[in-house]
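Sample entry (322 residues):
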Amino acid sequence: MKRINSIHAFGAALVFGLFGAQAANAQYPDRQISMIVPFSAGGSTDIVGRIASQALSQRLGVPVIVDNRGGAGGTVGTQAVVGMPPNGYAITVSTTSTHVVGPLTNPTVRYNPMKDFVHIGLIAETPYVMVVNTKLGAKTVQDVIDMAKKNPGKLNFGSAGQGSTTHLAGLMFLAATGVKMEHIPYAGNAEATTAVMGDEVQVLFGSMPAVLAQIKAGSILALGVGTLKRSPELPSVPTIQEAGVKGYQASLWLGVSAPAKTPKAVVDRLSKALSEITADPKVIKQLGSNGAVASQMSPAEFKRLIGSELKVYGKIVADMKK
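Predicted structure, serialized as tokens:
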């Protein structure tokens, strides 16, 4: 009799647990959500993340608070997310740097971008911009190439960190042109932008949102954009390909991811909210004014994008090591 009662009790607990989990998911979210931005404040990821967090707060009806955790090209903050509870209350801004380039180039990265995360969807895409210190005297991309060839190793280029996409964008430029420049890594795009303004480095391949205000203020000079088409925000600036570097292309995508095993109901709720905000004219305008283009992808599409990018950039990284 005790055994039967125990079985009944176990069954009741199991059913209650299942329905309890479903009820919890149905009520999601009912408290504050933390959005980990794995770069310092003021950089591209931070700018786009804050636009998205504010819009998601309004859409979900709870605060979505940005938590900046910069370091190592975004991989430090991203690693921290892996150990957080998979309940939808800890999400991260995932980028080409954190989920593709970092794992491919940084041997200290311990997370697997495909296995340790569930990917919610995209927020935006943005080009990289080749900018220089105004005192350098370069007016074109070719000017920089000529200076670097005449003074090999004398020019420095900054990045948002070792193994970041800004680092790779610089390496791709060096490989395409055959010039030599020293690489100086920083904690994020904001610090790298400050460095090129202060002449600590002469060149930076910065993400558009991080450098656009300084370009428009005349604090730094934009020489070329990494996309195949010119940016509407900088229509007079040629593409780097137009400037003579054939085959050069560098851009950044930014999305939202969460720890693996986050419940499907929670992922669906976040995906729906993300799709709604990236279709909102107000958000589209906010992103556009910062040089980013609002983009949408389902969780399955976003996961496929990351898998595809790992293959593409994996080949680039392997070729550079030859």
